Amino acid sequence: MAKINKTLSQAIQERRATPSFDGAPIPAEDLRQILDAGLQAPSGYNLQPWRFVVVQSTEQKKKLRAASYNQGKVEEASAVIVACGDADGWRKDLDLVLEKGRKGGMPESYAVQAQASVPNYMSSFSSNQMQGWLNKQVMLAFTHMLLMAEVMGYDTAPMEGFEQEKVHEVLRLPLSYWVVALLAVGHAKGADKFDGGRFDIGHTVFGEEFGKPLKL
Fold first, then answer.
1. In what order do the strands lie in the sheet with 155-159?
2. Angle formed by the axes of helices 89-103 and 108-122, nearest 10°
3. Tally of CB atoms within 10 A around 83
C-alpha cells in the first residue's frame, strides 16, 4: 500500500478538477492501487461491466487528446484511465460471477435464480437503456479510483468531453464498449482550479418526501 497523504474526508472536501498536470510518471505500484480500488466497487448483480484502458505513452495520449476536443490535460496527465462499459459483459461473465459467488457463500438457490433472471433482465434493455445502466455501474468504479488517487496525494480531473467514435478508433475498442468518462491522474502544474462552491444540505436533501427538510 502506498503512503496515505489525505484522509477520505479531506480528499472529498479538497478535491478540484485539475486544469493542468506536470506529466511526471506514476509508479506502477501506485497505479495498480488506484485501479484496484475501482475493481472493488459494487455493481448490479455483481456483473462488474467496467473495462479500463490506461493510456500513458506520449504518442497515445496525443491521439486521445485529439479525440477529446484537444484538451491539454489529456496529454499532460501522467496517466489517463478511459472508463468503459461492456454491453455484452453480462453474457460473457455471468457464469464466472456465479462461480465466484458460490465460492464466497452464495446460496445455490440464489445462483440458480440469477442464472435465469439476469439474462431475462439484461436482454430486455434497449440500446439507450443499456448505456444508462453502464453509466451508473462504471461511475461507481470511476469514483472509487478518483478518490483513491486523491487520498494517495495525486491530483485528478474527471472528463466527459470526448467524442465516442474517435475514442473507439484511437483505442481500438470492441463495438460492445461504451466510453463513459476519462480520468486524468497526475500532479498539478500551476494553480489549482478555483473553488466553485457546493449547495448546502437544505438545498438538495429532503426528509421522508420531497419538500420536507431533513431533521438532523
1. 50-55, 79-86, 177-186, 155-159
2. 170
3. 25
Beta strands in the chain (DSSP E): 50-55, 79-86, 155-159, 177-186
C-alpha cell at 143: 469514483
Q: What are the extents of the domains in the chain?
A: 8-94+126-204
Count CB-CB contacts under 10 A for residue 115.
Answer: 12
First-to-final CA distance of the chain: 37
Rounded CA-CA distance 138/38 in Å is 9
φ, ψ of residue 184 in degrees (nearest 5): -85, 130
Give the largest Cα separation in the chain, rounded.
57
The predicted-structure confidence for 115-172, as pLDDT tens digits, reads as follows 999 999 999 999 999 999 999 999 999 999 999 999 999 999 999 999 999 999 999 9
| CATH code of the region 8-94+126-204 | 3.40.109.10
Q: Determine contact, residues 181/138, Cβ cutoff 8 Å.
A: yes
Q: From the CB of residue 77, how many other CB atoms can be counted at a distance below 10 Å?
A: 32
